[in-house]
Amino acid sequence: MRDKNFLKDFGASLRDFFGGRTDSYEKAMLEGRETAQQEMRERAEKLGANAIVGVSFGYETMGQANGMIMISVSGTAVKID
After folding, report:
1. Please, are residues 33 and 57 in contact by the beta-carbon 8 Å criterion?
2. 3-state class of 3 per DSSP?
3. pLDDT by residue (tens digit) across 16-49?
4. Segments making up each domain of the chain, as ranges
5. DSSP structure string for 11-69
6. pTM for this one?
7. Mean pLDDT of the chain
8. Torsion of CA 47, 39, 41, 62, to 10 degrees
C-alpha cells in the first residue's frame, strides 16, 4: 500500500476540479505497480520459477478519506525449460 502525500493530494484535487492530469498520483501508481511486480518476481524465483503467466493488476483506494492506494498483482509462477 502506498500513502499519498497530503499536499500533493490537495494539488491533485485542484487539478481534478479544474481538469488535467495528476502527475503525482500517476507517479505513485507507477511506483506501486513496479514494487508489486518486483515482489511477485522475487516470490516466483524463490519457488524455482523463471516466468510468470496470467499477470493481473488490481487497484483500490482505502483508509480515511481514501488516503491510501492498494495495488495488488497476481500471476502463476512457472518454470519453462
Report:
1. yes
2. strand
3. 555 555 677 788 888 889 999 999 999 999 999 9
4. 2-78
5. HHHHHHHH----HHHHHHHHHHHHHHHHHHHHHHHHTT-SEEEEEEEEEEEESGGG-EE
6. 0.65
7. 80
8. 110
